[in-house]
Design a protein that fits this description.
The protein has 14 helices and 17 strands. The protein is an alpha+beta fold.
Length: 579
């Protein structure tokens, strides 16, 4: 009997030693791969070099996968507590190896064949063929990365030690970024040829959103332009401004009972209000209808929207430009010049609109015909899209179906298995341009939560939004066009903001509070509970809205906020249930 016990002990110790040695070796390979990933990030502008680095990463991830997938490891993964750690390590290394060897390395090899100089505009024309060529490889990579991300997300974190939980979160973040990039490449390869007129001319309406007068999607459309594209060649055809459009007696298209219950009919009657509904597919369709109303039924093929902050990103790629008015615009000055200085400089709205049009035309020319670095242009466009400052809608149903899965679509906040997203959408209620002087800060956290076995969470979440009026104490002395001059019964300098807060589907309101309350309202929009609230804020003061909502079903463990793009950086805060 003693010999049997001794034999069991020897086997146990040998197995423990075997697992310990292989775990240490696997850890070394993972750390080496992590260091190589850092190198790969610095080589993104040189895909050919990145292929070599990814090959090195692939060697380490494959070795780590072999070390954590042998029969002894699998048997030990069934043990109490220790088994959970081993299972997580094995699943993590397998997901990493599949991502690097099966997805990123083949995609990098395909991308390395591209000359990035060919991706930028040349002489007013963009050639979409190179991107279309790597589309299939990008799609395969995106699918494999999505599978790997799902594997990591499904690992039960509750019994894991903190360093391993942190490693899972880090890998999940890396895979999310990589999957998003591959998916974006795949969709660009599908969309760009047709949208750039490869199959015939297209006409697009460009909307310039003005962040000095908030609307849910950014700001009022102050200026617009018609652009024609044909086989990649881009031409600016016409420019207009919002005063060119009347107030329509009835909405130009049906809004639906849910939207009208929350926002009324104004989004369909005023072009300045089309961006009040935080869904660009609705705003763009309204813009298409209004354009047709004023242009003999001409229906544009799509709508593209951007704001002055997006222009500043583009100017970081083009360099400074000089407008037809002789003004010099740079990446660091364009927001202040357009949203503050122009209103102080020009008394007549028509002159302000002309200045905006000249600035937009100069940037358009610099982007489409200038000599610029394509990688910097792509970086600028990507940043604008991620911050929801660049939005795109296509009247072609097939193209729009592809766009709908991207940030370019500007849809309502979408929750998934990893993240439950709240929406915070701000609208000026003063008829002013005072929002240049305002800031908005959002925060979200779990008041209480419990992790479910599936990796989801239940509990009570809290979201707060603080509006601050940073206007000078003598704001009443600003031009009437900026303050609205008390048009809505407010003292000049006081700003009324109407906020629409969207809860994720599956969340119910528990309570709400606000400082400086003018009134609550709300409704339901596409499965989201909506709470609306108005606040009046005098110069130097703040107002805070706080909502609490509980989960009526298992939610994602991470909370995040999607909000109106203002002149300030977007909120990046997330809250993870750690219970």
């Amino acid at each position: 009997m003693a010999w049997v016990a001794f034999g069991v002990l020897v086997v146990f110790l040998a197995g423990a030693a075997w697992i310990g040695i292989r775990a240490a070796l696997a850890y070394g390979h993972v750390r080496a791969a992590q260091a190589a990933v850092t190198d790969a990030r610095s080589l993104l502008d040189d895909p050919a070099s990145a292929v070599s680095v990814l090959s090195d990463i692939s060697h380490h991830t494959a070795a780590a996968r072999v070390l954590t997938s042998d029969p002894v490891w699998h048997v030990a993964a069934r043990l109490p507590w220790l088994g959970a750690q081993l299972h997580a390590v094995g699943a993590l290394t397998a997901a990493l190896d599949e991502s690097v060897s099966g997805a990123l390395t083949p995609l990098a090899a395909s991308v390395s064949q591209l000359d990035f100089a060919d991706l930028g505009p040349r002489g007013g024309r963009i050639d979409a063929a190179p991107l279309a060529g790597i589309g299939p490889d990008a799609h395969r990579a995106a699918v494999r990365l999505d599978t790997a991300l799902a594997t990591v997300s499904q690992i039960d974190r509750r019994a894991l030690v903190a360093p391993l939980r942190d490693a899972l979160d880090e890998v999940a973040q890396l895979l999310t970024v990589a999957q998003g990039g591959a998916d974006a490449l795949a969709r660009a390869g599908v969309l760009l040829p047709g949208m750039l007129g490869a199959e015939g001319p297209r006409e697009y309406l460009l909307l310039f959103q003005n962040n000095a007068e908030w609307r849910s999607l950014g700001g009022v459309p102050g200026a617009m332009a018609l652009v024609r594209v044909d086989d990649g060649r881009i031409e600016l055809v016409a420019q207009e401004s919002s005063p060119d459009y009347p107030r329509y007696r009835e909405p130009v298209m049906p809004l639906g009972p849910e939207i009208e219950a929350v926002y009324g009919a104004n989004p369909g009657r005023w072009i300045q209000n089309i961006t009040q509904v935080p869904d660009f597919t609705i705003a763009a369709a309204l813009a298409q209808e209004m354009w047709a109303e004023e242009h003999d039924g001409l229906r544009v093929d799509g709508v593209v929207s951007f704001d002055p902050v997006a222009l500043s990103y583009l100017l970081s790629a083009t360099g400074p430009i000089t407008t037809a008015t002789g003004d010099r615009l740079t990446a660091t000055t364009v927001v202040d010049v357009l949203l503050r200085d122009s209103y102080l400089r020009f008394e007549r709205p028509a002159d302000q609109d002309a200045f905006f049009a000249a600035a937009a035309a100069a940037v358009f020319t610099a982007v489409t015909e200038g000599d610029l670095d394509p990688s910097r242009l792509l970086t600028a466009l990507g940043r604008a899209a991620e911050e929801r400052r660049l939005l795109v809608w296509s009247a072609d149903a097939a193209e729009q179906a592809v766009l709908n899965e991207t940030v370019l679509a500007g849809r309502l906040p979408r929750s998934d298995a990893e993240t439950a997203r709240f929406g915070v959408y701000l609208n000026d209620g003063t008829g002013s341009k005072m929002d240049y002087y305002q800031s908005a800060a959002s925060s979200v956290h779990w008041r209480s939560c419990e992790l479910a076995q599936t990796g989801g969470a239940t509990g009570v979440a809290e979201i707060s939004v603080t509006i601050q009026n940073n206007a000078p104490a003598d704001a009443a002395s600003l031009p009437r066009y900026i303050t609205s001059g008390g048009k809505y019964g407010l003292d000049p300098g006081t700003v009324r903001t109407v906020a629409y807060l969207y809860l994720p589907p599956g969340f119910d309101l528990v309570d709400a509070s606000v400082t400086g309350d003018v009134g609550f309202g709300g409704g339901v929009h596409d499965g989201h509970r909506v709470v609306s609230v108005s606040v009046d804020v005098v110069p130097g003061a703040t107002a805070t809205v706080t909502l609490a909502a509980h989960t009526r079903e298992t939610s994602a463990p991470t909370l995040a906020v999607v909000s109106t793009p203002t002149i300030d950086p977007p909120p990046a805060e997330e809250a993870i249930c750690q219970a």
